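To whoever is on call:

I kicked off a structure prediction for a single chain this morning and the downstream step that reads the tokens threw a length-mismatch warning. I double-checked the sequence; it's 432 residues and nothing unusual in it as far as I can see. Pasting both halves so you can look.
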Amino acid sequence: MRALLRPLFGRRARLRWIHLILGGALAMPYVLVGAVVVGPVAGSTEVFSSVVLQLASFAVGLPLAAVTSLFPLTRPLESAAVRWLCGVDAALLADGPARGRAAKGRTALWFTLHLGAGGIVAGMSLALPPFAAVLILLPLAAVLRDTRLGLPDVFEHTWALALAPVAGVASLLALAGCAAGAGALLARWAPALLGPAPEDRLAAAEARAADLAVRNRLARELHDSVGHALSAVTLQASAARRVLDTDPEFVREALAAIEETTRRTVGELDAVLGVLRDGDAPGTAPAPTLAADLDGLLRRTRAAGPTVAATIGAPLETLPPVLSREAYRIVQEGLTNALKHAGERVTVTVRVELRADHLEITVENPLTAPPTTRPGGGHGLTGIESRTRLLGGTARAGPADGTWRLRVRLPLTPPSAAPGPPGPRHPLEEPS
């Protein structure tokens, strides 16, 4: 019995019934406006005393509901109600306002159906339960038979009184069946009428692409900043431990470099995580640039043990801020790779030179062992390639004359045209 009654009185059926009653409540203002129009036309001041005039008012009010459904908030609110009360998957519904004539037309049709079906079911829900209760109690309560309550004369017969409770229960089941059927139909039609249009899918795809671009940007920043800091601090601590008893001055320099590296990295990490925290303001730590911190980057790298020979043939202070920031990260990643793969007792050569129309960055270190791929790694040079491509430059990395060479060329003026398909790329051989 419970399985038979669940489609009529189960939780989902009850929630859909509530959804229909809400539609009836929303329809009431439009019915009142319709009554203002129907009353004078019919020459009656008692519109709600006539079922025919009530239906006429209802019919006049529904077109008004279709017009007001064009307000932008209608579709988001209706979608939320359908999602929570009708059990429709959120992925099948549009969240934002309707765009375009077709989407607005579907929203108007849905709103009209919701209010129309809701008004009918809500009216039945108000009228039928009291009537059914009277029928069920009629054979048992003499006072109900004496007052008659406007019941048909047929209930004066004994057989009619005996069947009255059956008719009352049947009317309640009919009400539940109408509500369940109307709710199921609305739930089935909701994805077609409230679902995303092609414009909505395009807007959602653009939003996801923008979000992915931001996440990729933050991932690159974290990889370059934290990855370099951890590699440098590990080598600095290792070098300091080995000469702790023989070279106290080197140990002091290494500890100072570790302190400076971690302090700067914590500031950069806080700035990046501030963007990720929902509701938090971004961190205030400035993004490092060649002009602001190239000397410090080279000094901290030398504290890890390697000899870093730097040739700076460009006025770093005059470089565009975006170019200077991205170039800093490229040099940082090149030095990180050198620390991880060449060792701490090697000479790393860094050249930053200004050519006619581009900035050229070269990082070289001895190729002490064949390049290997670290488990879970392999993102550093991919990040360099991504940064370079966004600025319209080129990047090449790989063995060259017994050394590992990273060479990047960045145009001084980034491309101003709208982004299009990426052009030819130089493959980067990824050792890290």
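Update from on-call: the warning came from a stale cache, not from the record. Cleared it. Sanity check on the structure: The longest strand covers residues 358-366.
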